[in-house]
């Protein structure tokens, strides 16, 4: 029996299904083509993107069956763009939990990404739950369905699948192309295709909730392809992002704490954060400066090196011998 991950991977790269009674369907032809960089900003009131949140949806993650790699990927993605990821939550495939979490995140953060729960099976309820969260109906997204038929590959066990004949299989496939739809907003702002060779769209609800699949390779591909549409809305549209300077120090945290407290107060008005990270089992710990003003942080490098008796490094383990496994750190 194939794992759920393999099933979803196949479903997003092979044929999917049609007809179930729905309300009037998306029919904007332009959605069938790849949107330009302004696709995300065509809504009536686009907002600048300062903060982000990630909602991982899936019983399999909470049950330990699947390891979440999507939120770490999103964290690095946001860091590279200068977006502050403020929250990551993992919740079950439960309608009430999804509704509560997505409403709260949408109201508090500029860029919300959900992962998981948009496959063909009974427990894939993300689309319907998010629609209910914002009092919307699900509607058949015709361009997505047409792309599904054109781009997906037949499964070895469904070589004679008929896209035109109603069947349980077709109904299951249809679950993946029935999206939340707000009749008060432009259709092109609610679902976008960001990769020419993928049929799955990114559904966008309430202007800032972006619904992505949980399959890591698809999640990463779609998110990366979405980047050109996000850049015009960033605080730093040139995409310089956030920077991190790392200092390797032989001193325990308790010894550097007083200086780091003073440093944090000094750099806070410049939007710089100071971090301290013990490295258990290693001889050296790590101190970091994180912020958008790279030049200012670099100007502090000599001062930090002196006060933590350390060195600016490119990699955290740069100054640890490969064989170093002795626990020598103490607080």
UniProtKB/TrEMBL annotation:
Origin superkingdom: Eukaryota
InterPro entries named among the record's database cross-references: FLAD1_M, MoaB/Mog-like_dom_sf, MoaB/Mog_dom
Stretch list, region Disordered: 13-44
All residue ranges annotated as the MoaB/Mog domain in the record: 53-233
Compositionally biased residues, Polar residues: 20-31
GO biological process: flavin-containing compound metabolic process
Extent of the signal sequence: none
One Gene Ontology molecular-function label: FAD diphosphatase activity
The protein's name: MoaB/Mog domain-containing protein
Species the sequence originates in: Penicillium nalgiovense
């Amino acid at each position: 029996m194939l794992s759920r991950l393999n099933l979803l991977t196949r479903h997003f790269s092979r044929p999917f299904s049609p007809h179930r009674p729905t309300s009037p369907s998306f029919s904007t032809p332009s959605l069938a083509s790849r949107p330009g960089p302004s696709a995300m900003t065509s809504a009536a009131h686009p907002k600048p993107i300062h903060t982000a949140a990630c909602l991982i949806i899936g019983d399999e993650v909470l049950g330990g069956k699947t390891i979440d790699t999507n939120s770490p990927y999103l964290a690095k993605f946001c860091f590279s763009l200068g977006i502050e990821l403020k929250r990551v939550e993992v919740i079950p495939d439960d309608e009430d939990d999804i509704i509560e979490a997505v409403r709260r995140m949408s109201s508090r953060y500029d860029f919300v990404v959900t992962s998981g729960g948009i496959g063909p099976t009974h427990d894939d309820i993300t689309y319907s739950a998010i629609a209910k969260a914002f009092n919307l109906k699900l509607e058949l997204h015709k361009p997505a369905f047409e792309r599904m038929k054109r781009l997906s590959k037949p499964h070895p066990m469904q070589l004679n699948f008929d896209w035109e004949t109603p069947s349980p299989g077709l109904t299951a496939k249809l679950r993946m192309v029935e999206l939340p739809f707000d009749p008060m907003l432009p259709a092109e702002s609610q679902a976008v295709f960001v990769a020419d060779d993928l049929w799955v769209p990114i559904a966008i609800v309430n202007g800032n909730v972006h619904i992505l699949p949980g399959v890591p390779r698809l999640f990463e591909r779609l998110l990366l392809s979405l980047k050109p549409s996000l850049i015009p809305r960033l605080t730093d549209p040139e995409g310089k992002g956030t920077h991190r300077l790392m200092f390797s120090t032989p001193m325990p945290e308790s010894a550097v704490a007083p200086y780091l407290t003073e440093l944090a107060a000094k750099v806070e008005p410049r939007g710089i954060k100071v971090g301290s990270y013990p490295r258990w089992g290693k001889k050296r710990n790590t101190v970091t400066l994180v912020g958008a003003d790279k030049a200012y942080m670099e100007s502090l490098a000599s001062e930090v090196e002196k006060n933590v008796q350390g060195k600016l490094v490119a990699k955290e383990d740069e100054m640890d011998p490969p064989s170093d496994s002795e626990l020598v750190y103490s607080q």
